[in-house]
Amino acid sequence: LKTLLAYVLLEEKSYLKAIEIATAQMQFFSSKKIAFGALLAWYISAAATAGNKTDSYCIEICEKAVKICENAQNNNHYFKILFQELLANTYLKLNDKENAKMYCELALQSAISNQLLYLQVRLNKLKAAIARECLAQQPDKEKYNYAQQIIKMYNKTIDLAKKLGLKIFVKKIAKELTS
């Protein structure tokens, strides 16, 4: 329940309190060797850290967590993808588009290979957003074709979201596409 409270505090943007509770839960779950609980608490802590504008610490947490998720004993694809998505978002926020793109691609590849459709929707949307941020850097003669590729990315994401019945997500993506 405390981990759920940390998540609620994260959603309510009470980042410091979320970090405090998530850190305590992480220590508890780690001492009991409950990998899922520790990873969940660690993810909440990393997300709250990013929300609290301490991006370098968020990156540090996420990179360590990805390595732990890759550990043969844990091998937790879902959390690995979530941490990579958080890394991509954090790097994008820092205007490091290359690292954002790399982590987004890694996460998307894992989501596709593990047939995690909801995460594919989120990651395809993020991939399109990263590409959109890179549009200004394209040479003028390539901007039109690049913009067309971004539109295709958004449309692919909308199609997948429709298949999953994610109406609110479809509206958000369509709004992002038209803005």
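(the above was protein one; protein two follows)
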Amino acid sequence: TVARCLVYDPTAQAVFIDCQVSLSPHRLHQLLDRFQGERLGSGDKSFILKRLHCYQPTCFEELTRVLMRLWWFPLENLRLLVIDSIGTPLRAHSLTDFSQWQMAIRQTGLCLRRLAHRQALSIMTSNHLNAKGEPLLGDTWAQFIDRRVILRWRSGQRLCAIPNEKDANPYEISLPGIV
């Protein structure tokens, strides 16, 4: 999603907030290799990488600082904000009590909603499921979601489902996106 945004719009900037600290420069190059020849040609990837701003917060306070930086110092032509594993810095054990945890989730959700509105920004977050198959951030987070899709593996097949619907459909990740 991030690579597509930057490849297809040469003026766009994107922010990737990697809460699991798992994104590496090697992985970024792999993602861009998918576009080699199609839109990227054989050109230099640094033109695209200069427009991708990566952050790796490990706790709620660091995530808040990143979001506040985007609020006070907006990037020109910022089109996409992706937060991978948003539940990681918002896990209940990192905050002292349940009410503090819920307040942190609300604060983050409101901040993202305001950023999206203020900058006409698309925001995509991933949120893992707990052992019971429920969203890690629970019902408090659900009020901030416009669209929700569940992607999962079952019996060696990738399945995509919309919550509260019985059917799950197979999907593939291809050059155009998820199909």
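Reviewer note on protein two: The beta strands are 13-18, 52-55, 78-84, 122-125, 150-154, 157-161, 169-170, 173-174, 177-178.
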